Amino acid sequence: MRARMVGAAGGSTLALALLVCGCVFAALAGPALSLHTRSEALDQELNGLGGTTKAVQVSAALTEFMGPLTESGAGAKQNLSLSQLTGSTRELGRGFAALRLPLAAGDWSGLTSKLGVVSGAGPRAQAEAPPELEVTYRAPLTTAARVIAGTYASTGVPTGMLAVAATTQMAARYGLHPGSRLTVATVGNTVGLFVTAIVQEKDPGSTFWAQDPIAGRPALNVPGNGFPYWVGGVFADPDQLGPMQDALSGAGLELNWEFPLTVGHVNADQAQGLVSALNRAVSVTPALTGSLSLAENSMTVSSLLISDLTQFLATQAAVETVLLLLFVSLVVVGATVSLLAARMMVARRGGELLMLRARGGSVRQVAGMMLSTAMLAAGPAAVLGAVLAIALIPGDAASSGLGWSLAGLAVIAALAGPPLIAAWQHRKPGPAGAGRAWRRPVAEITACAAAVAGLVVLHDQGLPAGGGTNLYLSAVPVLVAIPVVLVMLRLYPLVIRGLLAAAARGTGATGFVALSRAARSSLTGVLPAFALVLALSLATFCGMLSNGIGRGEVAASWQSTGADALIAGPASNPVTTPAVQAIAAVRGVRHVAAFWTTNWVTPFGQPVTVVEVDPAAYAALVADTPFPAFAAGKLGHGESGTLPPGATVPVLASPSAAALLGRGATQLTSLYAMGPFDVRVAGLLDSTPALPGGGTFVVMPLETLPGPAGHPTPATVLVTGASIDHAQLTKVASKVLPDSSITFRTAVFASLAGSPLQHGAALIIDLTIGAAGAFGLFIVILGLALGSAERELTLARLTVMGHERPTRLVIAEAMPAVLAAVVAGLGCAIVLPYLVGSAIDLSAFTGSSASVEFSPSVLALGLPAVVICVIALVTLAAQTRAQSQRGITGMLRAH
Questions:
Q1: pLDDT at 311 exceeding the cut of 80
Q2: Sequence-ordered strand ranges (E) for 519-632
Q3: Which of 328, 337, 615, 891 has the most neighbouring CB atoms within 10 Å?
Q4: pTM of the predicted model as reported, rounded to 2 decimal places
Q5: How many other CB atoms are found less than 10 A from the CB of residue 880?
């Protein structure tokens, strides 16, 4: 018997050690995996940015920059020297480095003129308007470009002309070669340019060439209301800094400094520090020394990276807020299971502790004994869990402050549980009185009040923004289980008594005995039931999040395309009926609808978008999407034709458009050569595939409107179908609609689901569901183990009296409590979406601002519940079989 007691005590100690190891591992692994996921998303975003975005730019007008120097020189004009320019670059770089900006190699400085009309260029540079040219001086030109024709010349340049070099692209477009002469018209002056060299870019992707693209590559400028013309640039030779300032002093010369940043090593947690450093850099005046110290106030610092990182930080904060709910809730469940293991540890050593108290030992000694045992179990287990998390989980688990905080809470619960439980159970009994009768109701009311308060705060204020941590609010999803468990504990005895009364009228003893003991089963205690419902609630919450993210991604894909495929062509190439027929013949296509979108204004100047469609075809297509049904009948016959003079067109309007148009006929006018015409709101349309983003719009039949530009020219086609042949549709669209672009909804959905944030969140949610299920199994096993000794004694007594159905009796005794906990978990699943759904924003995962409807996941709740019930049945059967193979006489004598 003593050997069995020692083995049981050792088993409970091992259980506590395993739980501590798992809790510490989960506490560190969750934030580390989150960091890894968010860092992947940051890398993906940064890799998609241009080099000029990942840089710090400094600019200043040359006249303002050199003004203080000219004033200090008694009015004498001064030019910026090369030593001053390179010296200012070094000083600015040191200043930015002091702000902890991660500077990369490749910084440069330069001087650029405004564009001026150029003469002398070749015929390929001539468009409807004369070409224009800018002149740029860059200090590191010799290292950024290689000379392929001519040479940088300090002599041989015609008097009064500025020596310049041109890239191969500029030479090809402007017809340049060494010796070419150009004339640039500046403000009140003309400047002669003499081409000395043709150069080739060494690293076209560097900021040297990307910051001002037309400096090396000509571009055709097409004004909105003017004639197109070519623009480009040439580089002043390395020794032409002074002559360039003399020649182009009236051309609005601008100084530029460029400092590339190396951001490849920045992880998601370090992004905030980088943004703070960039904000300090752009808000503090750069410091210069020497003669240029007087000019520092004229400089402007900027960085496009700030806006991109700020947007990422907002998304990251939303992601962390949601994942924090999982991390904290999982640790709460783990700590509760650790307390259950601590209770079992105290129960297994109950005889030893009673002996200690009987021999005069104090409560402090009892607590100290259990604390030493807990430390021996939890200490090495915590270290092992931390080592495993650091070694196995991608990301820096060792640097996660949140992870260590959560791990510390789990370890504290494991260490404090055994001594506190032992001290409470072996304390000196107090006198019975009314105070003890009120103890449980007061505790229950307090616990319910704490849970309700957390839910109210979460509903009214939401979770902390900006990635802040509030452990209390973050644990609210599992604290929902508190009132549910308390209600279950109050109702459970009533249900058992009713079943017991029914069993008493039966002929067999098995049901009556089992239900009599079920009322006193260990699983009806507060801690085991609460722990099991916590685990099931967490699994349900994870399933709710997973379903919400999935639905949000689907909704976002529909909002992006409006249909299963979106074909957009140029307005100059309208969609014809044969083109629609060809698209409809593609394999898998069910419905096709083309539409024409134009912009109009009301008599009070409010803009309204008018969408013209074929009502019948469009209604059939809309019925194949999740958008609201399109009431084509409210638009009349919907036949294409010419709008009769003075006719009023019935339209379906969005709520905002209906508010502008009112109930009667309203005239719409256009800035183009068509209209006006009158519309009347015949019905409301909250959203529609033609404008999935919503807005102020009306939908009308495809008709010819008044005016020469009123003939419909639909340029966009929507296509639906469950199994569209993408390759064939792309081929047909490019043939019947040249220069069109096609977007597939499935591709949009795949990009959302496959992004690092979504993929990582799905992985973390799945792992949390698995961990919650594992904790649930632990709870069932530990709960059943707590009552195993009493069950063994009862079975031994019944066996002596001739009872032959021990397995049925054990199952009938223990399973009602397990089923009650499962039912309570179902109750949590039903109320969770209504209690916490409104406080959770999943837009960071779905890429859409549309609200996500939460609902419980049958799989997330059902699978763990079924597995828990099966494990409970198997465990009870195994315990019964093991008991039947032991000697009954010794057990009865021992008791």
A1: yes
A2: 565-568, 591-601, 607-613
A3: 337
A4: 0.78
A5: 19
pLDDT of 521 reads 53
Q: Are strands 254-260 and 108-112 parallel, antiparallel or unpaired?
A: antiparallel
* pLDDT value of residue 641: 74
Which residues, at least 6 apart from 239, have a Cβ–Cβ distance to it below 8 Å? 152, 154, 163
Mapped onto helix, strand or coil, the DSSP state of residue 86 is: helix
Q: Which of 6, 186, 25 is nearest to 774 (CA)?
A: 25
The candidate with the shortest Cα–Cα distance to 158, out of 134, 185, 136, 191, is 191
Amino acid at 71: E
Return the number of other C-beta atoms located less than 10 Å from residue 434's C-beta. Answer: 6
List helix spans (H) across 206-267: 207-210, 241-247
Sign of torsion, CA 310 312 318 324? negative
Between 892 and 363, where is the model more confident? 363
How is residue 762 annotated by DSSP? Answer: H
For 200-210, the pLDDT digits (tens) are: 999 988 999 99
Query: Across all residues in the chain, what is the average pLDDT?
Result: 83
Check residue 848 and give its pLDDT.
67
Separation between Cα atoms, residue 195 and residue 165, nearest integer Å = 6
Would the pLDDT of 658 be above 90? yes
pLDDT at residue 2 tops 50: no
Strands of 741-744's sheet in order across: 666-668, 677-684, 648-653, 697-701, 607-613, 591-601, 716-720, 565-568, 741-744
Give burial (CB, 10 Å; 0-12/13-18/19+) of 701. buried
pLDDT in tens, 258-298: 999 999 889 888 999 999 999 999 998 777 877 777 666 77
The dihedrals phi and psi of 505, each to the nearest 5 degrees, come to -85, -5
Say how many C-beta atoms besides its own lie within 10 A of residue 372's C-beta: 12
Q: Which two tokens stand for residue 56?
A: 């710090």
Q: Are 138 and 169 in contact (CB under 8 A)?
A: no
What are the tokens at 458?
A: 């979460």
